[in-house]
């Protein structure tokens, strides 16, 4: 009997299972880390997914916010967590592919994580406070050129898609805007609505434009915006635009294969469900399920595109 048990253990280990993973997974709550402040798009997505993932796995999934440093603090926390499937990251291409190029990060975005699911591409809206005397993207560009360095834009942090997208716009339009980084989309959006900052580029701006709190000038990251009448695609003005944000779920590298397989199947079911799709679309996220290999390629592509923008915009990495 001992020989049989030892043989089974050997087979399990050869399949990437550790003795702890031999027990039914999951047998305790899972922590789903959001690397930004509460109330932002990443946070909202994580809470929708956590609710449905818990039902699929039959175990609690607890959302835990760990904001700071463009999302790299939360990502580092997960990268160095025990690789047992109980600490996961609701990531964005920002904190994996972009921010580490500008902020000292204690992880390797390509070596320290295992992709679980590509959640979807985010539709960002470039939106302004209605008091700003512009009603179109061309008027914003003209106003910025007439008032160089006077317009400010908020983002969820250094190295986030909201930061890089408006640096990209600055390059294409030849304008000067001043960046005001926050620890998440929600506080940045709040300051744009209150008039402390002039504009923003963020998925969270979708709802603010619909409610009339902000004026939408252009969108990107989605094929259409029929729910935002009068807001044109950024491609109409800049057909060379090739940047967008995306959200994904990852686990620490080294998570047992059987656990990864279980999680990937669970995420796939959750992201295929009609209620989740509807909720994500309402946030400006276009659900896009991809194989793990393509998710990894997406991270690499975003890294390379943003690296070119960072170089041309002469953005400097923060000191170690």
Characterise the protein shown here.
Residues 1-23 form the signal peptide. With 320 residues, the protein is an alpha/beta fold. It has two domains: 27-121 and 244-312, Bordetella uptake gene, domain 1 (D-Maltodextrin-Binding Protein, domain 2, 3-Layer(aba) Sandwich); 124-236, Periplasmic binding protein-like II (D-Maltodextrin-Binding Protein, domain 2), CATH 3.40.190.10. It is built from eleven helices and eleven strands. Strands 2-1-3-10-4-11 form a six-stranded mixed beta sheet, sandwiched between helices. The chain has a five-stranded mixed beta sheet with strand order 7-6-8-5-9. Helix 2 (41-57) crosses helix 9 (257-272) and helix 6 crosses helix 11. The model is unreliable at 1-11 (pLDDT under 50).
Strand order of the largest sheet: 2-1-3-10-4-11
Q: In the CATH scheme, what's the topology name of the largest domain?
A: D-Maltodextrin-Binding Protein, domain 2
Unreliable spans: 1-11
The helix/strand series, from N terminus to C terminus, equals HEHEHEHEEHEHEHEHEEHHEH
In total, how many domains does the architecture comprise? 2
CATH top level class name of the largest domain: Alpha Beta
Anisotropy-based shape: globular
Structural class: alpha/beta
Fraction of helical residues: 40-55%
How much strand content do the residues show? 15-25%
**In DSSP terms, counting alpha (H) and pi (I) runs of 4 or more, how many helices?**
11
CATH architecture descriptor of the largest domain: 3-Layer(aba) Sandwich
Provide the CATH superfamily of the largest domain: Bordetella uptake gene, domain 1
Number of DSSP E strands: 11
| Largest sheet composition | 6 strands, mixed
Average pLDDT taken over every residue: 91
What is the CA–CA distance across the termini? Answer: 56 Å
Radius of gyration: 21 Å
